[in-house]
């Protein structure tokens, strides 16, 4: 059994290849966001924030929870695929068995009748019409046998392909189960580590949360992040639009060139046909003149036939070498345009007053309310049970999904038209930067990361970088 398991894991599955490709695509985007976050941290004056000690542990918990959720969904999809493959395999096996039995009956009948049927018919001296009809019937039978053999071969190949795909799905399930065990062990380890850190840091966290300067720095940090993200989104949207225009211009140039080439070839073909018709007419005139015997007729000079290249020939003419077409520039990589808005401008504004709350819970702090002696709230805080699903309030694209001082595990969704929704203090982030989301998609789970006292969600709405009251937009 151990040897079989080792063989399964030694084989590279399609899932492993796709996972490696997806991670490679995300690498460029992640580098940009890490650099952006580092740039914001350079201006920090508070370097000894107790919440920073929790950062690594809270990020690890978030990653483990997201991986477990993804693995569960992947496992369900793979089980469904395996079930479909099993049904298809059973159907193919029944079909192959029926075809084998049919072929066996045909071969047995042919053996009993003998292999000299055609010779017997030809030497029988019977009516030729009847012999011809019987030979045609034998030919039809042979064709039917050949078709049956072809269908049997095709179904046998389909059975082999089905078995290979089913084995690949089983290998993928083994990979998923192993990864789940690893992630669960990591999750439990990190939860224990965070609990120990919280017990050690609890007094420092309470004291630092009450400092007005810390709250103000948190707000400045958020404003700086949103501004930089907005600029990055704008730059990448412009780059995506420029790339699209360039591709359209290249396509138009290729189409124009292809049309010109086709017209030139058509003209050359028409000239060649005209010359050939003229030569044929001249030959016919000479032939008629020769038959009539009306003296020696001086033939008119015949133009040499035009040598026409094949219409689909790709080789360039020696006389006129066309200039090599410049190689098109490589298209923009997915990582370079991953933050381009996923929703059209105006779509978010149209949903004003109709948006559902991001999480089920009690509104504990409202926009504009004072935070004790500190600044007023720039968003709302919704008290919710730990692990409760946080939903995207509208469709868009995730532009930030990382831990940020003061907000813990933070996720930001761009909805187009310079509107953003912000979700902080999450236990886990279920989406990554660059992911497109629909309204109602689970994007995070509620928690108290970042040193927050209560479990819940800190929620903001921003337009052009400035926060505004979500109450007029979301039906709390």
UniProtKB/TrEMBL annotation:
Gene3D superfamilies registered for this protein in UniProt: 6.10.250.3150, Glucose Permease (Domain IIA)
InterPro entries from the UniProt entry: Cell_wall_metabolism_enzyme, Dup_hybrid_motif, M23ase_b-sheet_dom
All residue ranges annotated as the M23ase beta-sheet core domain in the record: 377-470
Region (Disordered): 1-56, 281-333
Coiled coil: 142-190
Keywords: Coiled coil
Pfam families according to UniProt: Peptidase_M23 (PF01551)
UniProt biased composition (Basic and acidic residues): 11-26, 36-50
Any one GO MF annotation of this record: metalloendopeptidase activity
Name this protein carries in UniProt: Peptidoglycan DD-metalloendopeptidase family protein
Organism encoding this protein: Rugamonas apoptosis
């Amino acid at each position: 059994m151990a040897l079989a398991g080792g063989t399964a894991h030694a084989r590279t599955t399609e899932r492993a290849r796709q996972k490696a490709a997806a991670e490679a695509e995300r690498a460029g985007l992640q580098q940009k966001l890490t650099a952006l976050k580092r740039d914001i941290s350079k201006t920090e004056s508070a370097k000894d924030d107790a919440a920073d000690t929790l950062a690594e542990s809270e990020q690890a918990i978030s990653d483990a929870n997201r991986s477990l959720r993804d693995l569960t969904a992947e496992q369900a999809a793979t089980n469904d695929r395996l079930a479909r493959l099993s049904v298809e395999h059973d159907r193919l096996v029944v079909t192959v068995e029926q075809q084998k039995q049919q072929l066996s009956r045909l071969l047995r009948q042919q053996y009993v009748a003998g292999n000299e049927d055609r010779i017997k018919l030809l030497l029988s001296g019977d009516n030729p019409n009847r012999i011809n009809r019987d030979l045609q019937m034998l030919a039809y039978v042979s064709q039917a046998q050949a078709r049956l053999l072809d269908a049997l071969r095709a179904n046998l190949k389909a059975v082999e392909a089905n078995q290979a795909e089913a084995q690949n799905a089983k290998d993928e399930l083994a990979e998923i189960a192993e990864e789940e065990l690893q992630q669960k062990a990591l999750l439990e380890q990190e939860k224990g580590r965070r609990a120990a850190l919280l017990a050690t840091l609890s007094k420092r966290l309470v004291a630092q949360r009450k400092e007005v300067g810390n709250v103000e720095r948190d707000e400045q940090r958020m404003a700086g992040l949103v501004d930089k993200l907005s600029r990055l989104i704008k730059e990448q949207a412009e780059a995506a639009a420029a790339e699209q225009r360039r591709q359209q211009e290249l396509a138009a140039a290729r189409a124009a060139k292809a049309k010109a080439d086709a017209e030139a070839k058509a003209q050359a073909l028409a000239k060649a046909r005209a010359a050939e018709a003229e030569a044929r007419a001249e030959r016919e005139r000479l032939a008629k003149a020769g038959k009539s015997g009306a003296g020696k007729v001086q033939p008119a000079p015949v133009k040499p036939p035009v040598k026409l290249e094949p219409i689909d020939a790709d080789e360039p003419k020696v006389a006129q070498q066309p200039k090599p077409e410049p190689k098109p520039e490589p298209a923009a990589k997915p990582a370079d345009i991953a933050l381009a808005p996923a929703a059209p401008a105006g779509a978010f504004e149209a949903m004003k007053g109709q948006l559902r709350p991001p999480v089920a819970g009690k509104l504990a702090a409202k926009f504009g309310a004072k935070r004790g002696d500190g600044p007023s709230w720039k968003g709302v805080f919704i008290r919710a049970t730990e692990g409760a699903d946080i939903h995207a309030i509208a469709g868009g694209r995730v532009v930030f999904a990382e831990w940020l001082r003061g907000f813990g595990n933070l996720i930001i969704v761009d909805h187009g038209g310079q509107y953003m929704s912000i979700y902080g203090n999450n236990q886990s982030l279920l989406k990554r930067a660059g992911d497109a989301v629909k309204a109602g998609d689970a994007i995070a789970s509620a928690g108290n990361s970042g040193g927050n006292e209560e479990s819940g969600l800190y929620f903001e709405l921003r337009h052009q970088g400035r926060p505004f009251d979500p109450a007029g937009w979301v039906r709390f």
